[in-house]
Amino acid sequence: MWHLSFFFSLGSSGTKGFAATKINQDELNAYLSEVRMTQEELEEYLSYYDLTLNELKSAEELRETLGPAVTPETLQNLLKQYEMTEAELTELLMEYGELEEGDSIIDTFHFIYDIEDIIDLEMDYDEEEMEYDEEEISDLMDGLFTEIGLTDEELDRFMNHLCLSSKNLL
């Protein structure tokens, strides 16, 4: 009995252990190679999203969760999708502090979704800065009121109520 516990303690001492995973280790190793990460780096990355490897059942589920790996091909597809050049994307990533001068997008990012999130964030800001004229606002409001099912009479009463309420505030 003593010998058995001695061997178990030898096997666990001095090695850096990883959390047990439900993912087949060969599958996981292939995935790690594909995304250019160590298991420790992947576990750290997942922790930012409050996930662990143990919560995921397969390398396929990892792919679905984290998105495609950044490769020259996936990067070109992303650039085409957003109608950007690599220089424009590089500039954007530098503005957001995600890339340093001279760094490569492919060497810095592991997953396309991370890059896409930054692009989408920037596009949302651009959309917020768009100006609308009165006719466009009216069309948007008409569409909204139609969508929620307000009749013209209900809309008139609602607008009158708003006008009265705003006068009472003054």
UniProtKB/TrEMBL annotation:
**Keyword set, alphabetical order:** Coiled coil
Reading the lineage from the top rank, the first entry is Bacteria
Coiled-coil annotated spans? 75-138
Q: Which InterPro entries does the record cross-reference, listed alphabetically?
A: Acidic_LPXTA
> How is this protein named in the record?
Processed acidic surface protein
Originating species: Peribacillus frigoritolerans
**Lineage, broadest ranks:** Bacteria, Bacillati, Bacillota, Bacilli, Bacillales
